[in-house]
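User: Show me a protein chain along with its predicted structure.
Assistant: Here is one chain, sequence first, then structure tokens.
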Amino acid sequence: MRTRFLLLWLLTATLSFTSFSQTIQKQQSMKNSNTKIVLFITGAYVSSTCWDQWIAYFESKGYTCIAPAWPYKNAPASVLRNHQPNADIASIRLTQLVDYYADIINKMPEKPIVIGHSMGGLITQLLMQRNLVACGAAIHSVPTKGVNTFKWSALKAGWRGLGYFTSTRKAYLMSFKTWQYAFTNGMSLKDQREAYDKYVVPESKLVCRDWMTKVAKVDYNKPHAPLLFISGSTDNIVPASFNYDNYKKYKDHNSVTDYKEFPGRNHFVLGQRTWKEDADYILDWVGKHTNSYVTEKGVLEIIE
């Protein structure tokens, strides 16, 4: 009897020590993955160079940053416009983009902080579903499937980009007039023109439709890394109500999901004169949450 009891005690102690050791190793690993890598993801209609000043600013704060161009868009905006219509750009799909950025992340030494604007915000959410993100910020994000908020300004600003009744084998190039309403409303004519010439690129009509399909579906009950939604009060193409409704869809109470609306921000938020205020808010939020992780059991752990 004593021998049997001793063997049972030894087995229990061994299992307890193994579990404790694994927990310590896991916490040490999580400590070591307090990432300083930032992946910026641009949205539709604009060049990835819209992140240039954000990259410089984040790097001045000690982060390592990249903003890879979408496939077929690794050229100056003016060059891409001169090659319109572009069949390669016209072929881009949302699934392809998510896989493209997932492949970039998988080659990194650790999970990055991911910050996406517009369609890039949607991609950020989809990458988070794949457990590839340490924490994420979705700036004026295109909503996930199931967010059915309707607003006239969004339809007016975005319907041409969907390209219904036109060939999907030809990319769509946003006109300056549409740019003024959809992106740069409230800005001076000079600033609108300069921004258009510097950033606007042809876009896939198919990728602009994909956000309404099952490709953009998210499991709102699934535990996820910390996620911040940023919206703007004067955004026409992605109104603040879209972002708020998207934010409210997330249901896991053990995961961090935050929302912030800034007054006076249009869809060109990355290039408005107030961009640094938005960047500082995100930096502060990231600093608070890069040590937050969702465990395999779905419980949020804060590693000090």
